[in-house]
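Researcher: Structure for this, please.
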Amino acid sequence: MASGKSGKKRPSMPSAVGQRQFPWGMVAAITVLVLLAGAFIVYPLVQRNQNRAWEPSEDNRNPALAIPGIVSQEYPGLQHVLGFQRVAYTHSPPFGGAHDGFWAACNGVVYPNPVRSENLVHSLEHGAVWVAYNPDTLDEAGKAALAQRVEGQPYTVMSPYPGLDAPISLQSWGNQLKVQNADDERIDQFIRALRLNRFTHPEVGASCDALGAQGFDQDNPPAFQPIPLQSAVDGQTVLPENQGATPGGAPAPDPTVPGAPAPAPAPAPGQ
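Model: Predicted structure, token format:
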């Protein structure tokens, strides 16, 4: 009987090393974590740098000039008119020029009804930003979005402005920006660049607090009136925007300053 090895081959055992697969899932998870961590670090830095671009400085006194659509004009300050007088402003809404001796309360106030422009312009002189909107063209969501930017914020005020030629108009002393919707990023840029910008408004450090019923009654403010036509300027009841109430255009005394003489009373009818 012939002897020899069997021709059958023993089946090979699978190699444990050969079965080990590359941990792609773990690599993907680590990659995602690294990217998220980078985003949390980088994004705030980018936002901070973008915000700094709108902060005024000695080297960039009016950053708002870089905002597309901005309108800028220089106005002299301290040109006061009396309560019965109107100003024939050249812009609507106005953003500088002669104004009432009493400012409108402007520390985060959202007025439900239109307010006299002459009082609001005085608020701009103190460093406030006035957010005006057309009540007929801006929807409720837009009004709510604007109010969130204003309520409780110092030196910021909001009111409807009938007949406005854009849904929204922003004013600071000497600057104006009109936009079409409340989501426009230029709104925040304007506010950041110009609210309390010490380089752009005349009365740095002046108050925005409510004056009370004897000055400007926040709960019952003077009613809005359309801007008079230039042809209505008579130097007595209607004044040009670059002239105060006293002769020669000199500033009228500010009745809110201690020791200043009180404004003259309105003339009786027929005088």
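Researcher: Any notable elements?
Model: The helical segments are 16-19, 24-52, 117-125, 140-150, 186-194. Residues 27 and 39 are 18 Å apart (CA to CA).
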